[in-house]
Write a structure and sequence with these properties.
alpha+beta; Aspartate Aminotransferase, domain 1
């Protein structure tokens, strides 16, 4: 899918005075992460923004917003905003600010503990007993 590097630079400009975030390739684009959670990202045709349920329902009524889909599956809490709605720095910064603020109120994501690799069958086999030492009589 890819992302628009110029649009991502604009997102970074909107985040210039914010701290505690990083960036990463994710969702087929480039996203910003705070507290282990992605909150705003860029794709080739717009941004994806994290929203609370109430705001998301309102945003999806707008012509420039649509559900964010990954492999055809709608991602809860996310909207995709088309480039037509992001022409000015002010328009983009509203989305960035709202998503940054929301993610700061969320608990850290649950991290699943990594499973230990499965033991090989040979490792499970009992070791062969050592031969008894011959006694000297």
């Amino acid at each position: 899918m890819g992302y628009d590097p110029r649009l991502f630079e604009r997102v970074l400009d909107a985040l210039a005075r914010k701290d505690g975030w990083s960036e990463k390739d994710m969702f087929g684009g480039r996203v910003c992460i705070r507290g282990g959670r992605p909150f705003i990202g860029t794709l080739s045709d717009g941004v994806i923004a994290l929203c609370d349920d109430e705001s998301r329902a309102r945003h999806l009524q707008l012509k420039h917003c649509s559900p964010f889909l990954v492999n055809g599956t709608e991602q809860p809490g996310w909207v995709k905003v088309s480039l037509e709605a992001l022409k000015t720095a002010k328009q983009l910064s509203r989305w960035v600010e709202a998503s940054y603020t929301l993610v700061g109120t969320l608990p850290p994501p649950k991290v699943e503990p990594k499973k230990a690799p499965a033991k090989k069958a040979a490792a499970k086999a009992k070791p062969k007993p050592k031969p008894k030492a011959k006694s000297k009589r």
